[in-house]
Each structure stands twice: as structure tokens, then as C-alpha cells.
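queue> pop job 88
queue> type: inverse folding (structure -> sequence)
queue> payload:
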């Protein structure tokens, strides 16, 4: 099944060593997003980056960092994203949060009634 519409992408930039009540902040944020019923979340671990202080964080062996960049992304309705922002305000001490409007095309499991198994796609890429 294919779902399509407008949504908001929430992107959260934090450090791997950031903590919330003794646990990694990224884990706590994902838990809150799930508990608050958002559509999903992905945590990405960067291999290198720097923030406002220009301090370089890298995974290269000669400069091994224990504070690599972490990006958490979630896409949901504008209402759900707005509802979660106060939670983040109370959790993030240092980082960056961005939002942007996006066009969403979501594919859900199972064959669609419009494209049964074995049928060619409606449009082909050539």
C-alpha cells in the first residue's frame, strides 16, 4: 500500500556522549518519540563533524572520539512534530533541532490492490 501526503521532517543533532538521566540522550529521545506515538525514528551515527564550538569529532583511528555526531530523524504530521518539541526543549542541553516541510510517499507492507504480486510496476524506470 502506498500513502502520500505532506509532513514535517524533524532532525535532531546531538553528541554521542550526551546523557539524559544516566542513559544516552539519543536512546531517551527515541523512547519519547515512540511513547508519544510518532510514526518512526532513525538514529544516524556520524563519522566526523563539528558544531558551533568548531571542535572536530571524528572516528578516524588517530583521533578516536567518544563523542561522535548523532542525528535523529523522524517524519510525521505537523501537529505531531509541534507536540513533541516541548519534550525536546526539556531534554536537549546542547545541540540543534531543525524542521522542514516534506512531501511523503510511504510504502507499507503487503501487496497493493492496485499492484498485485507478479504484476509489473505502474511505471517503469528506463
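queue> result:
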Amino acid at each position: 500500500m502506498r500513502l502520500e501526503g505532506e509532513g514535517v521532517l524533524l532532525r535532531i543533532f546531538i553528541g554521542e556522549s550526551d546523557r539524559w538521566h544516566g542513559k544516552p540522550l539519543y536512546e531517551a529521545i527515541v523512547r519519547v518519540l515512540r511513547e508519544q506515538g510518532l510514526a518512526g525514528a532513525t538514529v544516524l551515527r556520524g563519522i566526523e563533524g563539528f558544531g558551533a564550538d568548531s571542535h572536530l569529532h571524528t572516528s578516524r583511528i588517530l583521533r578516536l572520539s567518544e563523542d561522535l555526531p548523532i542525528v535523529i530523524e523522524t517524519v510525521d504530521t505537523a501537529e505531531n512534530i509541534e507536540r513533541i518539541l516541548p519534550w525536546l526543549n526539556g531534554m536537549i542541553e546542547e545541540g540543534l533541532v531543525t524542521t522542514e516541510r516534506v512531501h511523503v510517499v510511504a510504502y507499507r507492507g503487503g501487496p497493493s490492490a492496485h499492484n498485485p504480486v507478479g504484476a509489473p510496476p505502474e511505471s517503469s524506470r528506463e
